[in-house]
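Supplementary notes for students who missed Thursday's class. We covered one full example, reproduced here. Read the sequence, then the structure, then the short commentary at the end.
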Amino acid sequence: MTTQTGRKNKAVHVHLVSDSTGETVSTVARACLVQFDDVQPVEHAWTMVRSPGQVGTILESIRKDRGIVIYTVVDRDVQDALEEGCRHLQVPCVGVLDPVLEALHSYVGAKARATPGRQHEMDAEYFSRIEAIHFVLAHDDGQSPADLRDADVILAGVSRTLKTPTCIYLANRGVKAANIPIMPGVPLPAEVLEPGAPLVVGLTKDPKRLVQIRRNRLKLLDRDENTDYADIETVSQEIRIARETFAKHKWPFIDVSERSVEEVAAIIMQLYKERQERQL
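Structure (token representation):
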């Protein structure tokens, strides 16, 4: 693969070892790897690694595709087997959790339990996330408006402004999110206009970017691109009406043109937190 500057990307094998689902080590690794423009990572994921006996297979793979090893493993025997094997192969081996656990141990004066996958236990928080996901699916794109008052957050915007993916991301953080479309001539649900309604956040996007996204969507569905749905004048009017709606009801809004779902969700979480603090 070649970059825009004409330089070839360097392929780097990255072995991600976890004693649980691998979500943490994968997130950390990708957050770091994106900082290197000329690196093309080749990921090898190893999950649910909870005994030294499993390490042998991983080391064979590392021997074949030499690269950096990053792990989130709390069992000391598994750590020792992995680190010793990597020393023998002379490849770097980095424990993501160790510095944080050590700092917490020094600060709180308590020893960590070293229980694999403890963050994924089915506790009250886990079931809260499941409930939030069910809520999102039942209240996508204006469905079940009578229940909107039960939402924590309601997202409003025209089509293809990240409403659904942002709601799903928020649900995975335990936030019950619903979303409603803003369409010219279509009245808003009464539930979002009532006193004491949940927090409503508007989402908007640059019209030109939105037209391109909609055209790509129509192309993917093998439909005619020359429709009002992807017409720049019509889309610009939709955006203008949406912004006027946000202003009229004094709803905060976010321009998602150059923001990822994670960034949009982080802003919404902050708005939600501030609203809760004001209510208290």
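Commentary. The CA atoms of residues 74 and 114 lie 5 Å apart. The domain at 10-120 is CATH 3.40.50 (Rossmann fold). If anything here is unclear, bring it to office hours.
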